[in-house]
């Protein structure tokens, strides 16, 4: 990336801040001991791990006991879906299948975990539709929970993301919890895109389990956590030494936990100070794009959306061609999900929102964690206009 490059792919990943590196470094050099060791250096590492756990939990409105450190969002989602469903199966009457209820816009880490449960454990997976703005239909959620044992299954888990990666829509998680709990069903929330960007109050919202991934808010990649309340029965997916309440065996990454706590804290402080500015710059960008390119349409919810997330469709061109053209102009962005390992797939959220595949293919996502300067907004709009023109959109 050159100085002239504008990086607008924060939903894919973020750089690691200097403070985070500085805070992590001692736990890879001097204070490198295993936190399970009983000697003094081990105790030092264990204290750092505890402090990181407390700070991290506090920033998510959770308790230190809730935190299970993992290798990131994918692992956290897998542990939540499979672990909670497997534990619930042990309590179901013979012959009754576990029902897993997920929204139609979940990340593959959730959707595929549910599908895996269907494939190997005959789980009944119900996908709840979203409206045209990408928000879950609460009436349909209720329906998915009430369908009785006549369906041969009983609901054991609801999983709904807090913020969508493709269109930035923020889900009404508190309503989801209220409805699910009325049916005595626990709720897992994938907060990977939301953490550090919007306030999260896990306990106040009465959420049962919550996934977070560090590299979305400034840690090295491969770090995250599942927060899960003690009241929720859950089976571990890894067998071993019993670390992390027995739910995630393996020597803990102390430096990683320290980095997670510092990075989340930094992001939250930054958001507290700059949220309004970030939203204002996002809205200037959205207005500018819609004015400059008449064919452009905003996707997602104009009101309930991440502060640094602008997503559009440009019917008549493909998002892939736009991406490549913009890249050549020094603008790095994405078409939707970053997790399709270089494959250009049609953003599934847009299909779930009812867009035709040909239209959904024209999606573009611009995501950022810092307010955009007016000069940058002007540059993005000029580049987009030029790219659209060069691709034949007039
Ligand atoms: N969940 C959501 C909503 C995501 O956007 C992502 C990654 O983009 C993940 C889960 C997976 O997280 P990780 O990259 O840490 O495995």
UniProtKB/TrEMBL annotation:
InterPro entries: Aminotrans_V_dom, Aminotrans_V_PyrdxlP_BS, Cysteine_dSase, PyrdxlP-dep_Trfase, PyrdxlP-dep_Trfase_major, PyrdxlP-dep_Trfase_small. PROSITE patterns: AA_TRANSFER_CLASS_5. Residues 7-345 form the Aminotransferase class V domain. Keywords: Iron, Iron-sulfur, Metal-binding, Pyridoxal phosphate, Transferase. It comes from the Bacteria. The keyword Iron-sulfur applies. It catalyses: (sulfur carrier)-H + L-cysteine = (sulfur carrier)-SH + L-alanine. It is an enzyme of class 2 (transferase). Its EC number is 2.8.1.7. The keyword Plastid does not apply. Its cofactor is pyridoxal 5'-phosphate. GO terms for molecular function: cysteine desulfurase activity; iron-sulfur cluster binding; metal ion binding. Belongs to the class-V pyridoxal-phosphate-dependent aminotransferase family. NifS/IscS subfamily. This is cysteine desulfurase. It comes from Bifidobacterium primatium.
